[in-house]
């Protein structure tokens, strides 16, 4: 399956292709959930041992998106959200230095189990292997079928890679232009 939007066709993901993290101490991932993340999802994330702060629990549910984004950035936390504005690079650019990581859960908020399943797959296959300091200038779009990682490379180029699990349970990936 190829199209003009895809650099490569789907191929099986190989763990040996993942770059090793540099040596040294690394902090575990921490989340600052915006007001769009339902409480059952926050509870599930906490049950896995992830530190999660919540805009709702801090009384900031009505604050503008930019305020919540800056709060996550200031605290050095990854921002999980169900607000598609955060995926939009025209609104929240990856070209700006030291942005917080964003995890856009692209699943309707009333489909809690699908959202939890999508986040669980993403965490098991990717997020748990990368410490907090890796998350600067990365956005992830989680769906019920897989996830897409969009990041700014050290050369300033924006790259995207999509991941899906096929019917045989294999993790497939492809780069997106």
Structure description:
This protein is an alpha/beta fold and 177 residues long. The chain contains three helices and nine strands, in the order ββαβαββαββββ. Strands 1-9-8-7-6-5-4 form a seven-stranded mixed β-sheet. The protein has a two-stranded parallel sheet with strand order 2-3. A hairpin with a 5-residue loop joins strand 7 and strand 8.
Topology:
Layout: E1 11-12, E2 30-33, H1 39-47, E3 51-54, H2 65-75, E4 79-81, E5 102-105, H3 112-125, E6 138-142, E7 146-152, E8 158-165, E9 171-176
Parallel strand pairs: 2-3, 4-5, 5-6
Antiparallel strand pairs: 1-9, 6-7, 7-8, 8-9
Main sheet: strands, sense, barrel: 7 strands, mixed
- Number of DSSP helical runs: 3
- Portion in helices: 10-25%
Spatial separation of the terminal alpha carbons: 15 Å
Strand content: 15-25%
Overall number of structural domains: 1
Order of helices and strands: EEHEHEEHEEEE
Uncertain ranges? none
Number of strands: 9
Task: Give the structure's gist in a few sentences.
The protein is built from three helices and nine strands; from the N terminus they run E-E-H-E-H-E-E-H-E-E-E-E. With 177 residues, it is an alpha/beta fold.
List keywords for this structure.
177 residues, alpha/beta, 7-stranded mixed beta sheet, two-stranded parallel ribbon, 3 helices, 9 strands, 24% strand
């Amino acid at each position: 399956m190829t199209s003009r939007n895809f650099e490569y066709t789907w191929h099986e993901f190989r763990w040996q292709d993942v770059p090793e993290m540099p040596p040294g101490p690394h902090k575990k991932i921490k989340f600052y959930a915006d007001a769009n993340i339902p409480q059952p999802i926050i509870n599930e994330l906490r049950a896995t041992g992830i530190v999660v702060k919540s805009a709702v629990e801090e009384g900031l549910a009505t604050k503008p998106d930019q305020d919540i984004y800056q709060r996550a950035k200031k605290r050095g936390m990854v921002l999980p959200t169900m607000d598609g504005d955060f995926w939009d690079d025209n609104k929240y650019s990856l070209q700006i230095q030291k942005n917080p990581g964003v995890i856009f859960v692209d699943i309707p908020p009333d489909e809690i189990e699908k959202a939890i399943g999508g986040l669980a797959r993403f965490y098991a296959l990717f997020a748990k292997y990368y410490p907090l300091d890796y998350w600067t200038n990365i956005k992830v779009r989680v769906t019920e079928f897989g996830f897409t990682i969009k990041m700014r490379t050290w050369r300033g180029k924006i790259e995207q890679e999509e991941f899906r699990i096929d019917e045989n349970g294999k993790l497939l990936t492809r780069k997106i232009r």
